[in-house]
C-alpha cells in the first residue's frame, strides 16, 4: 500500500519536473521473476524506472543509507534492500537472487556506477551471473535525460525531459559448468547490446553505436 502511495506521489512530481515519458512498458512481465537492466547516469534512475514500470520493483542500495533516520525506513518501504560495500559481491548476489526466487521484479545497473549522459559502458560480469543463475527474463531499458537533470556532483535537479524506454526480454540459462565465467561475461555483453538497441530505437535511428560510445 505504501509503495503505491509513494509511487503515485513520485509520478506526479516527475511529470511536473521532468515531463517523464515511458515507452515499451508492455515488455515487462506483469508477474513472476523479472530482471530489469538499465543504463546509469544519475541518482534519479532508480525512482525514474520505478515510476515507469507497471509493477513494483526492488532495488539494491548500500547498507549505510538504511541507518539514516526516516530515510532508511522510506527506502525500505519502496523495496530497497541493503548490501554492504565490503565484500558486497556475494551478499548482493544472494539478496538479488532471493528477490527473484520470490517472484519479484528487480532493477539493476550492469555498468555498476554512474556514467555520462548518453554513453554506455561495459557491463560487469556480476550482472550476467545474476541473469544466468536466476533464469529470469531480462528486460533492457534505456533512460534518456536523467544525466542532464541530475548529473554526478549536482544535488538539485534541473527541469529536463526524461524518457524511459523498455525493450523485448532476453533469456539466459546455465549452460553447463564449463566456461561459466565466460558465459556470465557474454550475458553482460548481450545486456548492454540490448540496451544500446533500445537507445537507438528511442532515438529513431538504426543501431550503429556500440557499447562505450555516446
Account of the protein in words:
The chain contains seven helices and seven strands. By secondary structure, it is an alpha/beta fold. The protein has one domain (2-202): 3-Layer(aba) Sandwich (Glycerol-3-phosphate (1)-acyltransferase). The strands form two sheets. The chain has a five-stranded mixed β-sheet, sandwiched between helices. β3, α3 and β4 form a beta-alpha-beta unit. α4 (88-101) runs parallel beside α5 (125-134) and α5 (125-134) crosses α7. Residues 207-214 have low confidence and may be disordered.
Key descriptive features of the protein:
five-stranded mixed beta sheet, 14% strand, alpha/beta, 214 residues, 7 helices, 39% helix, globular, Glycerol-3-phosphate (1)-acyltransferase, two-stranded parallel ribbon
Strand content: 5-15%
Question: N- to C-terminal separation?
Answer: 39 Å
Mean pLDDT: 88
Low-confidence region ranges: 207-214
Discrete helix count: 7
Amino acid at each position: 500500500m505504501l509503495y503505491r502511495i509513494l509511487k503515485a506521489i513520485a509520478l506526479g512530481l516527475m511529470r511536473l519536473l521532468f515531463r517523464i515519458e515511458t515507452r515499451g512498458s508492455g515488455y515487462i512481465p506483469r508477474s513472476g521473476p523479472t530482471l530489469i537492466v538499465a543504463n546509469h547516469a544519475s541518482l534519479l534512475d532508480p525512482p525514474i524506472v520505478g515510476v515507469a514500470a507497471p509493477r513494483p520493483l526492488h532495488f539494491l542500495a548500500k547498507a549505510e543509507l538504511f541507518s539514516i533516520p526516516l530515510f532508511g525506513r522510506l527506502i525500505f518501504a519502496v523495496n530497497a534492500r541493503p548490501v554492504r560495500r565490503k565484500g558486497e559481491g556475494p551478499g548482493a548476489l544472494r539478496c538479488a537472487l532471493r528477490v527473484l526466487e520470490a517472484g519479484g521484479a528487480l532493477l539493476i545497473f550492469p555498468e555498476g556506477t554512474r556514467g555520462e549522459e548518453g554513453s554506455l559502458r561495459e557491463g560487469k560480469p556480476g550482472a550476467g551471473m545474476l541473469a544466468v543463475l536466476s533464469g529470469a527474463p531480462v528486460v533492457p531499458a534505456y533512460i534518456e535525460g536523467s544525466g542532464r537533470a541530475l548529473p554526478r556532483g549536482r544535488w538539485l535537479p534541473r527541469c529536463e525531459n526524461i524518457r524511459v524506454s523498455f525493450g523485448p526480454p532476453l533469456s539466459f540459462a546455465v549452460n553447463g559448468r564449463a566456461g561459466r565465467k565466460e558465459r556470465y561475461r557474454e550475458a553482460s555483453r548481450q545486456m548492454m547490446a540490448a540496451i544500446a538497441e533500445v537507445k537507438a530505437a528511442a532515438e529513431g535511428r538504426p543501431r550503429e553505436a556500440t557499447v562505450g560510445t555516446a
